[in-house]
Amino acid sequence: MEAGQNNSSRNGQTLVAGLRGIRKTYFKPDGSVLVDALAGIDLQIHAGEYIAVMGASGSGKSTLMNILGCLDRATAGSYMLDGRDVSTMDDDELSRVRREKIGFVFQAFNLISELNTIENVEVPLFYQGVPRAERYERAMRCVEKVGLADRASHRPYELSGGQQQRVAIARALVNDPAVIMADEPTGNLDSKTGAAILGMLSDLHDHGMTIIVVTHDDRIADRCERIVQLTDGLIDSDTVHRPR
User: Fold this and answer.
1) CB contact at 8 A, 17 and 80
2) Burial environment of residue 21 by CB neighbours within 10 A (0 to 12, 13 to 18, 19 or more)
3) Are 31 and 226 in contact (CB under 8 A)?
4) CB–CB of 111/172 below 8 Å?
5) Overall CATH class of domain 9-240
6) Which of 154, 75, 147 minimizes the C-alpha distance to 111?
7) Which of 18, 33, 65, 114 has its CA 20 to 30 A from that of 10?
8) What DSSP string describes 55-98?
9) Between 132-145 and 117-127, two packed helices, what is the crossing angle to 10 degrees?
10) The predicted structure's pLDDT at residue 1
């Protein structure tokens, strides 16, 4: 089946994200084309996959990540996410889908310095209007899952870089997303701490989570089961990979 059909499956797997003919063009103020960041992307992502999106600077991988994460809109093409056509949604609908369907893990952690661990993890639930008691309960479960129950009341400046990224992973999990999107998740960590974070992502994948990682690091890609390589806004290769 083609990308964009929400009943597609592969070996019984449900299609989580389907892109068809996705283009992203940036224009100059005079309306002329500045750059075609994505030049026609067809991509299917199935439930439970662990995918690395790779490419040199300017290849389009960050643009693709932004579109997959509903942080930006494509200029053309269709995008189905968890059975919904997000390419036709208005900004409010996109925000709602982003909150409910996607968990983000960023290189810079993006924690709120004034909030403690539990409060940072609760943030997506706060914006969904989840009652306080339920927010706390769900956030604590996720904090326990990443091994930080004893740091629940600590603020980011009281945590190591690895602990901050664990908080970010807990925050990504708290809304029970369809997919986790990680952008260079170990970029600000030393190699030992980075390996621990990658081990945690692998464990989440082993428990059925769909994970997409944007990276330029072969060590991260080696842990994934599929590698999508971009060149000049197009998919240059899409290969199955045996994780190491």
Assistant:
1) yes
2) middle
3) no
4) no
5) alpha beta
6) 154
7) 65
8) E-TTSSHHHHHHHHTTSS--SEEEEEETTEEGGG--HHHHHHHH
9) 130
10) 30
Looking up tokens 């893990």, which residue turns up?
A: 105
Q: How far apart are CA 188 and CA 186, in angstroms?
A: 6
Q: Is 173 helix (H, G, I), strand (E, B) or coil?
A: helix
Q: Is the pTM of this model over 0.70?
A: yes
Name residues of the chain where pLDDT drops below 50: 1-10
d(CA 200, CA 51): 15
* Pairwise CA distance, residues 145 & 163, whole Å: 13
What is the tens place of the pLDDT at every residue in 197-224? 999 999 999 999 999 999 988 888 899 9
Burial 58-68 (b: 16+ CB within 10 A, else e): ebbbbbbbbbb
CA trace torsion 243, 171, 48, 16 (10° rounding) = -130
